[in-house]
Specification:
With 334 residues, the chain is α+β, with helices and mostly antiparallel strands. It is built from 8 helices and 11 strands. Helix 2 crosses helix 5. The longest helix has 29 residues. 21% of the residues are buried. The C terminus is likely disordered.
Length: 334
Amino acid sequence: MAKILSQDEIDALLTTVSKGDSDKDFDNIDQDKLRSVIAYDFKHPNRVSKDQIRTLENMHDNFAGQCGSTLSSVMRTIVDVDLVSVDQITYSEFIMSLVTPSCTYTFSAEPLEAVSLIDFNPTLTFSFIDRMFGGNGKILETERELTGIERSVIGRLAQKLYRDLERSWENILKIKVAQKSFETNPQFIQIVAPGETVVVVSFQIKLFQSTGLLTVCYPYMALEPIISKLSAQNWIDATKKKNQESDRETNLYNLEKVGVNMAANLLTTNIKVRDFLDLNVNDVIPSEMKISEPVEIFVNHSLKFHARAGLSGKKRAIQMTGFVEENMEVKDNE
């Protein structure tokens, strides 16, 4: 026989049901909060921070400008080079993204320890070759490996880009790029383990109707010793320092070309006009100036230095002992 619930039991049952609904709503709230949590993928760790990525972007944006100037001079036409992206992926993913046959060089960048990699897109490579041999940079439809002569030509072009890469790194670290090897099959290039993190910098190059990618790959182990230097503040400070040094060198270079009139006033004395008119060869003019007193040096008719007269070998010469400031006070050289 079915049991009939009392009013108290019914109220208790309704209370339990309403409490269960509130717990369910609470669970929904927790789920909403959990949706804002980002899952960490241990296969694709972000070992380079966003600030460091931005510094790499600034560095290689400078490289893009220098590379564009170099390629334009070699190709005798305007070549546009634009920075596309700076990403960190695994080395295996990077190798899978390259086409076969490829035009890939490995290079060292001392004092960075690991070997890095630079890849030219085949379409771009053959456009460069066609243009350097007198063509209009047409696109080659068939895919093939480079011949010996073509490899030599692209190798010389790569050497020019290495120098641009060195200049783009100057604000952070002075590196010396040296080519290691050339490979047409990316699968044979193992500079690091397949699961190792690499930083891939991609550039888009436009030559007439041809468009291709130039890719530079840095293993994380190469950047790890200097990763602390890849900060925005360090980049700004290094850029200011470089600008100051560059301005100083420019000013010194410009001053070296300035021609001025320099004259040494060996002595000064006062004589009468009658005595001056009666002067003859071998006459001696007495002066109250002592031989130990400094000689005055005039630059463009302005007193600038004090010096001491003497000989340099068999030639008469003067040795600077101090310079005269605007207030006419003499400051001795230390």
